[in-house]
Amino acid sequence: FKDGSQKDLLNFSGTIPVKYGNSYNIPIQLWILDSHPFAPPICFLKPTVNMGISVGKHVDAHGRIYLPYLQNWSHPKSTVIGLIKEMIAKFEEELPLYSLSSSDAARQSELLSYIAKITEGETDMKSKNKISGGKNEGCFNKITVVGAGDLGIACVLTIAAKGAADKVVLLDLSEGGAKGGTMDLEIFALPNVEISKDFSASADSKVVVLTVNYLGNAQTYLDVIQSNVDLFRGIIPAISHYSPNAVLLVASHPVEVMTYVSWKLSMFPKNRVIGVGANLDTERFQYILRNLLKAHLLAKDAWIVGEQGEDKVTSWTSCNSAANQTEAMADRNTREKVANRAMGVLKGRGQRSWSVGLSVADLTDSILKDKRKVHSVSTLAKGCCNINSEVFLSLPCILGTTGVVEMVKLEDDPLMQEKLQSSAGSIHDLQQQLKL
Question: What's an example of a GO molecular-function annotation for this chain (predicted)?
Answer without folding.
Answer: L-lactate dehydrogenase (NAD+) activity
